[in-house]
Amino acid sequence: MLDPRSLNLAAAPATTSAAIRSQTGCSGWGVDPSNEMLDKARSQESAVAWICATAENTRLTGIQFDFVFNVDAIHHFQDRAKVYSEINRLLIETRPVCIATDSERDHPKPNTPLDLLARNHRARARSLP
């Protein structure tokens, strides 16, 4: 895989983005809607490309990612269906997505957008030759 890329949605602070980048060697990208939080992230990790945008509309064009993730911030997303659409748009087919939360209310329920995204992603992976 040439130049693998990871994208962290709601990326600040930089802890997880920096860990993923250092452990995998991939190019790190982070999206967060708060300039204040991004300033903190930039001061912690300069090797990640930090972008001020929302998870619902990253404004990223001409790029796809090998791994998209979010840690403990899904409850901040205003429109999760748009977030899941944005993930599908940005994620290379069959590549992993990880949304981690310790909040029970944020776990995907059957037939919700996150559950359907996961099932669709697994189905695409199984259909490859």
Topology of this protein?
Elements (H helix, E strand, L loop, with lengths): L4 E5 L5 H10 L2 E6 L2 H10 L4 E4 L14 E5 L8 H11 L6 E4 L12 H14 L3
Parallel strand pairs: 1-2, 1-4, 2-3, 4-5
Describe what you observe in this structure.
The structure is a single chain. With 129 residues, the protein is an alpha/beta fold. It has a single domain (5-126), classed as Rossmann fold (3-Layer(aba) Sandwich), CATH 3.40.50.150. 35% of the residues lie in helices and 19% in strands. The chain has helices at 15-24, 35-44, 80-90, 113-126, and strands at residues 5-9, 27-32, 49-52, 67-71, 97-100. A 5-stranded parallel beta sheet has the order 3-2-1-4-5, covered by helices on one side. β1, α1 and β2 form a beta-alpha-beta unit. The longest helix is centred in the C-terminal third of the chain and has 14 residues, at 113-126. The two termini are 18 Å apart. Mean pLDDT is 81; it is low at 125-129.
